[in-house]
Amino acid sequence: MTTADFPIVAPAAPRLFSQHTTARVGGPAGDWIVAENEHDALDVLQAHPLPADSVREAGEDTLLVLGGGSNLLVADAGFGGTVLQLAFSGISAEPVETEAVEITVAAGHDWDAVVAWTVERGLTGLEALSGIPGAAGATPVQNVGAYGAEVSQTLVDARVWDRAEEELVVLSAEQMQFGYRDSVLKRTTVAGSPRYVVLSVRFRLTHRAGEALSAPVRYAELARTLGLDPEAPEDQRRAPLQKVRNAVLQLRAGKGMVLDEQDHDTWSTGSFFTNPIVPASAAAQLPPQAPQFPAGTDDDGEPLVKLSAAWLIDRAGCGRGFGADLVDGRASLSTKHTLAVTNRGDARTEDLLTVARAARDRVRQTFGITLHPEPVLIGCSL
Ligand SMILES: Cc1cc2nc3c(=O)[nH]c(=O)nc-3n(C[C@H](O)[C@H](O)[C@H](O)COP(=O)(O)OP(=O)(O)OC[C@H]3O[C@@H](n4cnc5c(N)ncnc54)[C@H](O)[C@@H]3O)c2cc1C
Fold it and tell me: pLDDT tens-digit profile of 19-37?
């Protein structure tokens, strides 16, 4: 008998999260299924009903749903279960009223390609959300937002697979209970284990005859870049769609917030921390120059205030590039923006977490405010 009778076949190398996430860190997965269509995704989902709460809380659900991997940090040891990567794409549009068009987008469609598609067709509503990495299906999960816009402003509903009831349902925007970087989709995800898996999303956009103008620009820095007066009435804060998209992309690139393989400042999960929302009484203890924005009231009626995590990090002594010395230069805060924790080329997940922990601890020591991570952490914690 020769080896020709029993050819030696090397086992397929496991897929690594470092090759499928924008921070480019994270170990192997047990099994990796790329669903090229909704039917294949549903087969996998039907085989993975929602486990008991205790299993999910222990981080032992065997299913992880992946879009573009831009808001995900997976442990260096990896994830032993099945990764379901939603890779199906497609956009369809339907006029619904004289000046309104609804677009339906498959979960795996690249988000920025969706925005570009709408801008090219003169559809108003998503332009300020240009340049955000990831897939369309993930956008409602944390109510993706930037430059004064959030998907909740235009999202009509999402078709989702409910792993608890094992059925397809349509969740309206109202049912998704959107908040700042939050939704019912996120609140029902436990240790990375989602109850609802988004298969497609529907947005209602505006389409007017003549030159297509943006929605009113709500972000002062963007307004100034476009030559608009940030204090002007809403209707005077509109600009041509493509011009708004270009300005957003330019502003984002200056902060390392547009993916660029050559630029390590973009090897990140974007903002590592959410902007803390605290009672006004706690915000009053901060230095007067700390940026503060009204954020509604709590259940007892006390006013809430949104703070700038980037400002707190910076003023706690963690400037741009902070933390490199803690991990032999493998990771640091971005050299363009203090809110991103970046991989400088050969970082591991633990390096990014070391830098993030140091920044969080300094903010807590200096201001008594606790920062919380924005990305989903799998098999690791801050
Ligand atoms: C450079 C950079 C800039 C960024 N800028 C912004 C920004 O301006 N604003 C902002 O809000 N975010 C920003 N982000 C974060 C990120 O891009 C968004 O949160 C994005 O929507 C994540 O999409 P994704 O497909 O990559 O999700 P993934 O990272 O693949 O997944 C994130 C989480 O969502 C879950 N998930 C993914 N797809 C689905 C689905 N179809 N159904 C149910 N659950 C799902 C995953 O299980 C996981 O828990 C930025 C990230 C980077 C790297």
Answer: 999 999 999 999 999 999 9
Range of the domain at 48: 17-86
CA–CA distances in Å: residue 306 to residues 134, 297, 303, 313, 369: 25, 11, 10, 15, 12
Residue 41 φ then ψ, to 5°:
-65, -40
Q: Per-residue pLDDT tens for 122-174?
A: 999 999 999 999 999 999 999 999 999 999 999 999 999 999 999 999 999 99
- Same structural domain for residues 69 and 97? no
Choose the final residue of a domain: 202, 224, 254: 254
Claim to verify: residue 154 and residue 293 sit in the same structural domain: no
Phi, psi of 301 (to 5 degrees): 85, 5
Compute the distance from residue 288 Cα to the ligand 1 centre, in Å.
Answer: 33
Distance CA 24, CA 7 (A): 34
pTM for this prediction:
0.93
Per the residue annotation, which of 159, 181, 315, 362 is the catalytic one? 181
Total residue length of the chain: 382
pLDDT band at 193 (very low <50, low <70, confident <90, very high): confident
**Active-site residue flag, 252:** no
Give residue 5's pLDDT: 60
54 catalytic residue (yes or no): no
Residue 208 covered by a domain: yes
CATH number of 50's domain: 3.30.43.10
Ligand 1 contact via 257 beta carbon (within 6 Å): yes
**Token pair listed for 33:** 């299924």
> How much of the chain exceeds pLDDT 70, in percent?
97
Distances (CA, A) of 5 to 10, 11, 266: 15, 18, 49
- Beta bridge partners, 34, equal 85
